[in-house]
Fold:
Amino acid sequence: MQRYSIFSLARNALNDHADWERAWRSPDPKPSYAVVIVGAGGHGLATAYYLAKEHGIRDVAVLEKGWLGGGNTGRNTTVVRSNYLNDDSAALYEKSLQLFEGLSRELNFNVMLSQRGLMMLAHSPHELRAHQRLVSAMRLNGIEGEMLSVEQVKALCPILNCSPRSRYPVFGASFQRRGGTARHDALAWGYARAADARGVDIIQNCEVTGLRLEAGRIRGLETTRGYIEAAKVGVVVAGHASVLAAMAGLRLPIQSHPLQALVTEPIKPVLHRVVMSGAVHVYVSQSDRGELVLGAGIDGYNSYAQRGSFHVIEAQLAALKELFPIVSRLRMMRQWGGIVDICPDASPIIGKTPVEGLYFNCGWGTGGFKSTPGSGFVFAHTIAADEPHPLAAPFALKRFETGRLLDEHGSAGVAH
Amino acid sequence: MHLIPCPWCGPREESEFACGGEGHIMRPADPEARSDAEWADYLYMRANPKGWHRERWLHRYGCRRWFNLIRDTVSHEIKAVYRMDEPAPKLEP
Structure:
């Protein structure tokens, strides 16, 4: 792997940047692999990277039906945070945030982590108490968090409408200083480049059309580029998890819904934090280019079409304008949708399945981006050791039978 | 935005409706005899197909009645609409 540094930049500037190596190869699939990961999004590529780095398993292929990072990895609002209520969730999301904090150096690729602070607004005394409970739970789990008064909120975010006569009066906020944003594409590209450098084959335009099982064990995958034998298969396909599960005769507690986001035209820096409001359903940050990045809610019906309904945007923008009157005359530049895999308890499913050698990592729903490094880290361990990583153990599919659900609807931040 | 043909009110905009998810899920007739796995399947597991989906909808801001739709989850085409007491039409390609 060609290392990126100020010196390599200077050296390549001398010949018009004509000699940069490709960041990763485009190999043809081999007939067999020790581990095949389905889905070259952030989670899949992170899994492959940690398989090679932490567990020394380099005979790995990552299959992608489209292009690398072209699904939900490239369609989110790039928010990172770990302000979750339950102990199990807090441990997993905090692990992810900690990995994020050292990631640019580790991958030798700038993931543009910007820990600008993330506030979640409370619009009623009851919501304020719920936030106080959340912050207390976070502190007990060793995760910093604090409550902000209305005056502090106003000082950190002057464009917010904090008038008591507002339709959505602000009573205060919970605040995680280490929360913020990162660059979504860079995360996928950084993991892809680092995994490729360790010998992982990333195979794009290769769709899995079937899973071959034998006596309750995975044998290989039928793909659009031929049959590939695999001792172990890890499926990390977000919205299409149910489709892949059906190929193995399994059923998942997952519903696929469209989730939209949109950006405004670029303006001068006006918003220096990430601001979320669960009650009226707004989450917004300003990108380095000056665009306001806005997340909308999910559509209420099952869909695999990567677009959402217009009335969802309308409701989202009405709430946004009430909270931030400054945006009333901004034009929207782009809008897009991704298919999110929603679990009944808004927590992911990570682990083994009834099929030996087949592992699923899905159900991240509306909160997948922030969890990419942690998800890959624990899933790689789960595949390599054939038993769940301690952080992933509570997130087993089995919890729907035992009833030990992990309700995180309050922390998910997206209306659904 | 879907244009949904309510069997009682005719075609109306999607924003008048609420989707109730997969239809034709039967509560076990003998609850005591069911295992935890069977309960999990009834409560949580869903087909979530890519393609034709039999689902329940509620005309929330209209007649407030439930009905069934067969809808494609990729193209959003609606193939059939039928009342709760009607049998599901066959899904021929």
About this structure: DSSP finds one helix and six strands in chain B. The two ends of chain B are 24 Å apart (CA to CA).
